[in-house]
Amino acid sequence: MCEYTNQNDLKHSMQAIDLTGPAPIQEPQRQYFFIQKARQHVMEKSEELGRPLYFHCVTFGCQMNARDSEKLCGILRQIGFLESDGEDADFVIYNTCTVRDNANQKVYGRLGYLNTMKRKNPHMKIALCGCMMQEPSVIEKIRKSYRFVDLIFGTHNIFKLAELLTAVYESDEMIIDLWTDTDQIVEDLPVQRKYPFKSGVNIMFGCNNFCSYCIVPYVRGRERSRTPEEITDEIRRLVEDGVVEVMLLGQNVNSYGKTLKQPIHFAELLKRVEEVEGLRRIRFMTPHPKDFSDELIEVMRFSKKICRHLHLPLQSGSSRILQQMNRKYDKEQYLALVGRIRNAMPDIALTTDIIVGFPGETEEDFQETLDVVERVGYDNAFTFIYSKRTGTPAAAMEQVPEEVAHERFDRLLALVQKNARSAAEKWQGQVAEVLVEGVSDHGDGTLTGRMSNNLLVHFQGPKTLIGTLVPVALVDSKGFYFIGEWRGVV
Ligand code: 5AD
Ligand code: SF4
């Protein structure tokens, strides 16, 4: 399951390294130098302890973070660590999220437990990285109350893990390396994919939207796109390595390419990705409704590979609240967009993100949200209670009482679940193409896979099907997933 973005380059880079000289200035060569250096430290420690060293990586938050963690794990493997599934490892890293306060609280809670583990294993090193670390107040708190942490870095410099880990092994101080922003994109480092047959692919980083509730633009910096050539080359290499499905990742994929020397639209990028031979499925996340072009709808409509699923964050159904949120669309524009998408692709599954209890939200505003949810009939929705994020404009607005937000949340969730159930039931009796992802966690040996519309299906079949696309009859709808029957031959 271990994959390198370019095996040959990697071998070449590792062989040519002279550790007696200074570290190269150029990236990623500099990081290959530090991978070797960190490797020496790990080997020494391992000899001293008479056993291999283990790492454990915990990911909080979104798909972007999940992809970042695959990069962290790839580097750690290359440094010589083995992976452990428990927090009793020799190097524990938390890749954090800060989009809502409960994500932060989880990290603080688990840090207390890590401290007890570290007392038992004095060789243990603890690292924190990701979005939460980009907040100065968090760093202050960790410096003061969690002094046992060895390394802190942020979202812009995860590629530097080997260099920072070397510094950790060569110093007794807490190492902190935080960048406020960057225009640097360093790829071509080792990556360890979670799945051999599907992969996320970053197409852009950062966000320029500044929705008034959202901390992401402050912690992920300004928008930067990778060139279409870099992206399609990476996808080609992934396909050679067994990948059949890619998820193109960006905070707002619709503004992809705007800042490139040769600007290009997301719809054009999709056309180029479609041409990659051997690739079977394309997904993307997340489009912003404000710049969802008709051209993109057309490209999706005629594509053979783009999945019939669109995650289109609504956030609120009230035009007044949408304006306060700085979303740059209103209720009517959102519904009109959904109409255009459904006209072009009647079978498409639509999912969304909704926030309840945004500052100033009245019962009437909330009714508008329920109205959109009812009219769109989402296949599923992620619903969130507004969480106040320091430094964002909404934090200074008049807050909705907690019990009011909770009560609205419960009503919204009930409606979302009712709609999801009836959306799934429509598929009952059909045969769908399913990408088999693994053994289901039902514990009965059944396999689990995903339809193009992202619905989960559990069914009996041999494990050799994992990683392939197979026809499955959708026999019994369980609301959010199906029990199916495999209709294929091996
Ligand atoms: N409070 C609650 N939910 C939020 N989201 C982003 N910021 C906040 C916040 N401050 C939600 C949005 C976004 C999803 C990733 O998280 O719905 O689409
Ligand atoms: Fe992802 Fe946003 Fe959380 Fe960062 S803050 S991990 S970008 S959801």
Q: In terms of quaternary structure, what is this?
A: single chain
Main beta sheet strand tally, sense and closure: 6 strands, parallel
Distinct compounds present: 5'-deoxyadenosine, iron/sulfur cluster
Number of helices: 14
Percent of residues in beta strands?
A: 15-25%
Unreliable segments of 5+ consecutive residues: 1-8
Cα end-to-end separation? 23 Å
Protein structure class: alpha/beta
Strands ordered across the widest β-sheet: 3-2-4-5-6-7
General description of the model:
Mean pLDDT is 94; it is low at 1-8. 37% of the residues lie in helices and 21% in strands. The chain has 14 helices and 21 strands. Strand 4 (91-96), helix 4 (101-120) and strand 5 (125-130) form a beta-alpha-beta unit. Helix 13 packs parallel to helix 14. The strands form six sheets. Strands 3-2-4-5-6-7 form a six-stranded parallel β-sheet, sandwiched between helices. The protein has a five-stranded mixed beta barrel with strand order 17-18-19-21-20. With 490 residues, it is α/β, with parallel strands linked by helices. The protein is globular and about 65 Å long. The longest helix is centred in the last third of the chain and has 24 residues, at 402-425. The structure holds 5'-deoxyadenosine (5AD) and iron/sulfur cluster. Residues 61-62, 64-65, 97-99, 131, 216, 219-220 line the site of iron/sulfur cluster.
